[in-house]
Structures are given as structure tokens and as C-alpha cells.
Amino acid sequence: MLKIAIIIGSTRPGRNGEAVGRWVHELASQRDDATYELVDLKEINLPMLDEPVPAVMGKYTQPHTLAWAAKVAEFDGFVMVTPEYNHGPPAALKNALDYLFKEWNNKSVGFVGYGGAGGARSVDQMREIVSNLELADVRTAVGLTLAHDFENFSTFKPGAHQPGALNEMLNQVVAWAGALKHLRNAG
Predict the structure, then answer these.
(1) The domain containing residue 96 runs over which residues?
(2) Which of 40, 128, 150, 182 is disulfide-compatible with 8, CB 3.0–4.6 A?
(3) What would the pLDDT profile of 171-186 be if each residue is shown by its tens digit?
């Protein structure tokens, strides 16, 4: 069975990402097309990139990099939960991506963005970043706006249409993860 990680991309104190990530995981876990695991970058606790050689070389030296590489290698696809900070993704998420290369290759990825504009600018930038890591991003993304999907801009209360959008995105992530399996197995 395919295995999909739901990555909480914010490590900020008081973040909304934990509630969003848990919501994604709860709904995803009701499906029978893959197994879903919640991966919180706050718990992974990677320092700013400290590898002496570019990740594309695959010569990881740090214990935290080796552990992160082993974790990412377990998955066939990803859902990245990303806030929008200053019109872009959080540094912790970009940093986590930059640590590795081949472990991301030939896997699918979908996005759940949140913020003033539903995290749209963060998701757009993430699409550019993940393409260089040979991740196949799916078209459908979930955009959660602070004004409509959060009470008082902080308590997560997704709109009635959001579960449908999430399931459509998960359908695509799973379909692409399955379609790319032969490439992962050939590598």
C-alpha cells in the first residue's frame, strides 16, 4: 500500500499549522487508498542546512540528515501543509526540502496552504521548488483563508467545502504516487 506523509511545515510558536495538519491527517486516515502519517517539522527539529556537500551528491554526513533522509525515503508521496509568511513558505519547510535530493525524487506532492490569501503565494513558490527536487505536484490545492476558515484568525474551523477540496487533492496525490512507483522502483 502507498504511504503518504502529511508534513506540517511551520515550527512557529502559536502556529495554526498543527491544527490544519491534524485535520488533514484525520480526514486522510478515513480513506483506504494509502496509509497516512503526520510528520511535524517542529519535532524533526532540523538545524539550518549544515551539510558541507550539496544534497544532489547524496553524501550526507550529519546524523540528523541521515535520520531525515531515512524518514522521507519511507514515503511515496506528500501533502505539505504550508502557511504563507511574507508572501512565501516558511524557512523551516524550505530548509527541510533543501537537506535532501534523491529521497524526494519521483514522488507526488499536494499542498494545503493557509493565510490571508489561502496560502496561494506560498503554494506557488513551493511548486517551483519541488519541481527541482523531481517531485510531481498535483493541480488541486487546498487554500484555507484566515478570514473564512479560522475563527478570530486563530481557531481552525474549515468551511463546509474544504473536506471535498482536500479529498480531491488526496485523490490526485495517491494517483500520481501510484503512477510514479515504477520510476521509484527502477532507481
Answers:
(1) 3-186
(2) 40
(3) 999 999 999 999 998 8
